[in-house]
Design goal:
Strands 6-3-2-1-7-10-11-12 form an 8-stranded mixed β-sheet. It is built from 4 helices and 12 strands, in the order αβαββββββββααβββ. β1 (14-17), α2 (28-36) and β2 form a beta-alpha-beta unit. 14% of the residues lie in helices and 29% in strands. The protein has helices spanning 3-7, 28-36, 107-111, 114-117; strands at 14-17, 40-48, 53-58, 63-65, 71-73, 78-79, 86-90, 93-94, 100-101, 125-129, 150-152, 157-159. With 164 residues, it is α/β, with parallel strands linked by helices. The longest helix has 9 residues, at 28-36. The chain is globular, with a radius of gyration of 15 Å. It has one domain: Rossmann fold (3-Layer(aba) Sandwich).
């Protein structure tokens, strides 16, 4: 699979990438690919742990570990989630329709809830990253769930039924 061709990477593309927890798939090779293509990188930063809220911050400058042990940028300007072009999302499980199981707190569903309200949209494109073994036959989603547009595994790229 040629990820750069599949994802249409180009200089200036605004891309958010998760900083992995110990058990999540490493994003280091992806970050290297994005930097080589001149993409602008953003990382999530938890802003309200009690209400499970986060924002995306430019991946520049010093980093620190948050209360969950995830690396976050300390000083940088946030970008509104609607202004991102592409977002790579961690997952625990997924199905072919773009339903995703995460860690259960709902940070990503809250951050991209606006996508559920639109009948047509262009961005950001949400792409899950995981292993093929994490694919499930079907996941019954709730009204709050935001579907993925694609999933990348070590075996293939799944284009989901979201229309993007």
């Amino acid at each position: 699979m040629n990820a750069s061709r599949t994802l249409h990477l180009f200089p200036g593309l605004r891309v958010a990438v998760y900083a992995p927890m110990r058990h999540e798939l490493s994003t280091a090779p992806l970050i290297g690919l994005l930097r080589r293509h001149g993409c602008r990188l953003y990382l999530p930063r938890i802003t309200d742990p009690r209400r499970c809220r986060m924002q995306f911050i430019e991946a520049a400058g010093p980093m620190r570990r948050n209360r969950l042990g995830i690396e976050e940028p300390v000083h940088a300007r946030p970008i509104p989630t609607r202004n991102l072009d592409l977002v790579f999302v961690p997952l625990v499980g997924f199905d072919s329709t773009g339903m995703r199981l995460g860690m259960g707190a709902g940070y990503y569903d809250r951050a991209f809830a606006f996508r559920r309200l639109r009948t047509s949209w262009r961005r950001p494109r949400l792409v899950g990253i995981g292993y093929a073994v994490q694919q499930l036959p079907a996941i019954r989603g709730g009204a709050h769930d935001v579907r993925l547009d694609a999933i990348i595994t070590e075996q293939e790229v799944f284009q989901c039924s979201t229309g993007c």
